[in-house]
Design goal:
The chain is an all-alpha fold and 265 residues long. Helix content is 76%, strand content 2%.
């Protein structure tokens, strides 16, 4: 960890963002919904500023923790937009707690500097990849809500989903479809320009294997849903499996290299 050497502005923004994310989750019964949403919006803006300092700095920094932080930021953004379109979506303060953890983790482990010889294609490649994390992360959150609502409906209880179950299901798999398109573009860019992006030829390493496994898993999910009407527990299970593969592909490998082995990938 390099807490002591970090610039003061990212430190201030990280602390502000983490505290602002945490307050509504901790004081949900004391704050009005409008005040809580305003605080979360400020936390989200400060979170974005922290990410900009790291990703657009000289040199830019990236690693497993910034990837998780960007994912949490994107999940919050997508959920916020959906809440505007569907005001009946319930407020999930768990996402605020995740935002707090993500901001602090990224500050503690800011990643490694990208080499000066980095290709101009690499930021696009990383942007597509991180956007995949955000879309699939939001889909996983929705799938969990959906499964929870289904269980409550079976028990003849209020589902607390805030949306009709079929609407929530459509949202979930629209996110999966959009994420699959971006994942396909990410893999295609990596295969076509791997030597340009990373200064080495295409190779079958753990990141490649897990990325392709996730792509195959999501393809099976989309085919199963379209052709065989997969729903409920089976579809959610395949979504979770593909998301785990995707998480292991980059975040998992970078965590092992940066933290356990202590070497820059």
């Amino acid at each position: 960890m390099i807490l002591a050497s970090a610039p003061p502005v990212p430190l201030i923004l990280s602390v502000f963002s983490a505290v602002a994310y945490a307050l509504p989750a901790l004081l949900s019964k004391r704050l009005s919904l409008r005040a809580a949403h305003a605080i979360v919006a400020m936390a989200w803006l400060a979170h974005g500023a922290v990410l900009a300092f790291g990703l657009l700095g000289a040199p830019p920094l990236f690693g497993f923790a910034p990837a998780l932080s960007v994912t949490a930021w994107l999940v919050a953004a997508v959920y916020g937009v959906e809440s505007l379109i569907y005001p009946q979506l319930p407020t999930r303060w768990t996402l605020s707690a995740i935002g707090t953890v993500a901001v602090l983790l990224a500050y503690a482990f800011p990643g490694s500097a990208m080499p000066a010889s980095t290709s101009v294609w690499l930021p696009m490649h990383l942007a597509f990849g991180v956007a995949c994390y955000g879309l699939f992360g939001t889909a996983v959150v929705h799938a969990w809500f959906m499964r929870h609502a289904e269980k409550r409906i079976r028990l003849a209880k209020d589902s607390h989903s805030g949306l009709p179950l079929l609407t929530l299901e459509r949202l979930t798999y629209r996110l999966v479809g959009s994420g699959f398109v971006l994942l396909s573009a990410t893999l295609a860019l990596g295969m076509a320009f791997d030597e340009v992006l990373y200064q080495h030829a295409w190779r079958w390493d753990h990141k490649t294997v897990f990325s392709i496994l996730s792509w195959v898993t999501f393809a099976i999910l989309l085919i199963g849903r379209s052709a065989f009407g997969w729903r409920g527990k089976r579809a959610a299970g395949v979504l979770y499996m593909g998301s785990i593969f995707l998480l292991l592909a980059y975040v998992g490998s970078r965590f092992v290299m940066e933290i356990i082995i202590g070497r820059t990938p």
